[in-house]
Amino acid sequence: MAKTATTKPTKKGFTAFCSRYFNLLLIFLILLFLFRPYNRSFIYIGIWQFCFIGVFLTSIFNCRHHRTTKAIAAIIAVPALFCNWFAHFYMITSLELTHLILTFIFICICAGSIISRVILNAKVTLETLRGVVCVYFMIAFGFSYLYLLIEYWIPGSFYFIEGFIKLPSDTILNHNHILSESIFYSFVTLLTIGFGNIHAVSDAAQTATILEGMLGQFYIAILVSRIISVYSFYSHKVEVEPVAFSSLHDEHD
Question: Is the CB of residue 76 less than 8 Å from the CB of residue 102?
């Protein structure tokens, strides 16, 4: 009897959606921004923590990292999440500082790995575009944690509309409100909107703000030009190849 060829079942629906690179990471990054704890309630803090953990997990397992990069990111993620959890309940400055430093390093490693894959990718696909958007969000979140680090090391580096902030805060709600303001300031700076309700006062804060604004401009300019050049190259190649093949066929005839 002849053996019948068996085909592997293709993934469909939600399973296929989750298996694609950067899908889950992009969703969690958007949720992390939308549910930032700006209204000072424990409900938003719980949602924020869930999305925060989701970003860590999907940054490791939902991206096309090199094996070494994935291992390093996982090693950094475990103590970062541990310090984040305990710092919220016990308000220990050393734990909070460790959490901020490790989170900033984690974001830099994952964002750098993703952008390198996107740049080296020969073709422009939906996966490439999702990776570009994910890195843009990660840049904003990375700088928001950098701003908090600067405020810890140099108190009074940022001036809010309600006055200078003081870290560490007395309660969990105040701490998360400051984190929310830092995220808002980071996105406004990256987008070069500049509402002026938060001011960088110290030299370190001003330098970081300028660097983020420049990075936002160069990121869009370089990535867009890269995507357009790759897309135009392959579009032109697809158009040229049939013409070249037909001309060779005519010469042979």
Answer: yes
Tokens describing residue 123? 């073709």
Number of helical H runs and strand E runs in the chain: 8, 3
163's enclosing H/E stretch is: strand 163-164
Q: Which residues are CB-neighbours of 121 under 8 A, at least 6 positions away?
A: 128, 230
Q: How many CB atoms lie within 10 A of CB 80?
A: 23
Give the separation between CA 91 and CA 3, rounded to whole angstroms.
67
Give me Rg for the CA atoms of the chain: 23
27 residue type, one letter: I
Instruction: Tell me the HSE value of 145 on the side-chain side, using a 13 A CA sphere.
Output: 21
* Cα angle value 242/247/251 (rounded, 5°): 150
Residue 51 has pLDDT above 50, yes or no: yes
Burial of 78 from C-beta contacts in 10 A (0-12 / 13-18 / 19+):
exposed
Q: What tens digit of pLDDT does each residue of 199-248 get?
A: 899 999 999 999 999 998 888 887 777 767 666 655 555 544 544 444 44
How much is the pTM?
Answer: 0.81
Least Cα distance to 99 among 118, 114, 86 occurs for 86
Q: Are 110 and 65 in contact (CB under 8 A)?
A: yes
Q: Which residues contact 188 (CB under 8 A, 6 or more apart)?
A: 194, 195, 198
For CA atoms 146, 78, 61, 26, the dihedral sign is negative
Q: What kind and span of H or E run contains 156?
A: none
66 vs 18, higher pLDDT: 66
